[in-house]
Write the structure tokens for this entry.
Amino acid sequence: MSTILEVAGMSASIGSQQVVESVSFSVPDTGITAVLGRNGVGKTSTLRGILGLIKRKGEVTLAGERIDGLPTHRIVQRGVGYVPEDREVFASLTVAENLALAERQANPRRDFVAHLFPDLVERRAQMAGTLSGGQQQMVSVARALLNDNRLLLVDEPTKGLAPRIVNEVAGALEEASRTVPILLVEQNLEVVKRLAKDAIVIDGGRVVHRGDAREILGDEELTRRLLGVHGDAPADGHGTEERA
């Protein structure tokens, strides 16, 4: 299987604090690859380092091209979509305006997004700041899916969502992964089992394990040692922020 992304010896820092030590891994050009690990070990910082949102060193290669020397907007222009952890919608703009700002190509995939998120079509004139947390997450994912990206970086898409909304967001990512590879940070292990083929485990800012996602999560001792939870444990803090 060929790869879309290669990360070699990447370190990253926020201010004076080093948050990623020396991360190396590859992402296949199909399917979903999960980034797993306990809270605070550098998962989000790894995605942000790839995208150049924080200071980083090392090599990052997208489809054979070095991108670690490029600013974030150039990396995005080369086909890397990003769904941030905290949604980051423009609260004072409508749903339609939020989506329009994300369009980078002449023929954005509006029909595809409308198919995945029909609720957003109905709410296109509503201010994004008045949406529920789940609806705001749909806007965040939809913005990334409007363009024909080579790779999506998706950070904690089901964090704090009610189970019904978790299922909708996971379903959208599952369908999107048929056309674009996804690097996914996710704490909900049931979602990881459903979506991911491969998994990378980070601890202390370094990759400590990689392999088949279901094999890792199906091994209770390995899951406990790497993630600090049982493989069949419920989602960590998910489903508590918003009612269905």
User: Anything to note?
Assistant: The longest strand covers residues 3-14.
